[in-house]
Amino acid sequence: MRFSPQWLDELRARADIVSVVSQHVQLKQRGRRYWGLCPFHGEKTASFSVDPDRQMYYCFGCKAGGSVIQFVMDIEHLEFVDAVKRLAEQVHLELPQATYEPDYERRKSERERLLSANVEAARFYHAQLWKQESAQVLSYLHGRGLDDGTIVKFGLGATPPGWDGATRYLLDKGYTVEELVRACITVQRDGKTYDMFRARAIFPIIDARGSVLGFGGRALGDAKPKYLNSSDTPVFNKRLGVYAANLLRKQHGLRRVILVEGYMDVVSLVQHGVAGVAATLGTSLTVEQARLLKRYAPEVWVAYDGDAAGQHAIERALDIFDAEGIPARVLVFPDGLDPDEFIRRDGLEAFEQLTPLSAIDYRMRRAAQGLDLATPEGRMRYAMACAVFLKKVSEPVELDSYIQRLMIETGFPREVLMQQVGRSAAAPNPAEQSIRRRERAQQDQQDFLPDHVKAEQSILSLLSSGRMDASLVRAQDFTLPLHRQMAQALLEGQTPSALLDAIEDEAQRAQAAQIMQSEPQGEEDVTLQIVSDCLDRMRRHRLQAKIDELQAELPSLQGDARRDALSQLMEMEGMLRAKAGRKG
């Protein structure tokens, strides 16, 4: 379903962002903005700002930013269409007739048919579980500690005896063999048609909307593979979702999501009363899954199996969370147990008493494995391994704590360890440095940007506020792709909130929100001078870039082409000197 830009603009105008955010955050007005504690990460000092003029929000702490639609998506764990519908209902705005892409009806019909087939299959497998012929599967589930209520809650099922029981059932329901094959319920091979899942316990994979996307099948006994998952289909991509997303969607105010490896881990933990549990879908953690989990809680606790494969998978997962800026910790279970085994053995109270390790603590523990720290070589290798990931620690207080620990564990002096990490050992009072950096994080970031980039960002901020004449600048005057995209949208008359909704990449959307809220202050005459200075810096940069380009081409030019290039070069250098003179 698509919505026209005009209708979405009306929705954003009606759904006042201050009113919507106030339903979830206590806001106080300071100046023309409103401030409160960010609902997306834990904090004690308000760094979450709402701009009623631009109808956008931005958090200086976790860098979350966007429009009123994005806020509802994140706070309510909704997809875009569902968030739009929720807002439209709140402001009593009638939904428009949907506009469709070419071939939309065919794809929509196919998708609906496959999802419907999956629902029928899930009901069939669940009903099959309670039959006498499936007693072995039911006994297996009960033997894993699951009660009937949990089995029903997750819609667990069993496959029928034989090779094609599910296929024949769904064919009788009116589905075609082609549809069942596309849904990965049925397999066609060597002229034969049979069920994909046979002699297995069935775990339906349900998304946040409640749609059955596919299935996981757990073999009984020694059959291989132990777990068989639906392949990717027109309605299912195992890289994009997580198991039990439908339950996560219903749980508000989660402070963390617990990410486990197996479906049974999820089911067992939920039965014992653990909230906010999910699992990947038969793959290693993907970037898309990490971003999805971020919607449901500000932090993720990785609780993989205690075997070697599980521990390696934890390190890969931490790398992904680090790259996405998602705080992550690790739950380590005693005796090499997996989450299901631990909670069945020791219970909920023991599970809740487990203290998660920070990502750095876990990596340091892993770095020490296999090394003899009683030997100089072991201590040296340990210190060098730790230095690799300590380079990424940005907070001086946090880094100082780990350096102190390394000093004790290895005996190396602070100066040596700091050099290995690539930092100066002379930094005084790290606590005060950390506070100053948090207070001035945005300005510090600006200081490292080239002058023309700072100028572009100032112009974009002024454009988004309507404080400058839009005819003074063109989209092609901006050098960075994101800046050019923002300028094009603003110059075409898009509102800042509409611009943010059009940016799909989360990091770029946050950057755009940061740029627009960083507005230069001052009266009208000061604003005019800022605009003039910024445009001048942008033009001088473009002129210098053309000069550099010509100078690079000169060695390969001959005859008239070389003379023309030299003439252009002299002219542009003269213009650049003139601009520099006026600037002085």
How would you explain this protein's 3D organization?
The protein is α+β, with helices and mostly antiparallel strands and 584 residues long. It contains 26 helices and 16 strands. The protein has 5 domains: 86 residues, Zinc finger, CHC2-typedomain (DNA Primase, Chain A); 125 residues, Alpha-Beta Complex (DNA primase DNAg catalytic core, N-terminal domain); 119 residues, Dna Topoisomerase Vi A Subunit, Chain: A, domain 2 (3-Layer(aba) Sandwich); 70 residues, no CATH class; 140 residues, DNAb Helicase, Chain A. It has a 5-stranded antiparallel β-sheet, sandwiched between helices. It starts with a helix and ends with a helix.
In short:
With 584 residues, the protein is of the alpha+beta class.
CATH class of the largest domain: Mainly Alpha
Unreliable spans are 425-439
Second CATH tier, the architecture of the largest domain: Orthogonal Bundle
Quickly give the structural class: alpha+beta
Main sheet record: 5 strands, antiparallel
Looking at CATH, which topology of the largest domain would you report?
DNAb Helicase, Chain A
Overall structural domain count: 5
Give the radius of gyration.
Answer: 29 Å
> Total helix count?
26
How far is the first residue's CA from the last residue's CA? 56 Å
Mean pLDDT: 86
- Helical residue percent? 40-55%
Order of strands in the sheet with the most strands? 1-2-3-4-5
Residue share in β-strands: 5-15%
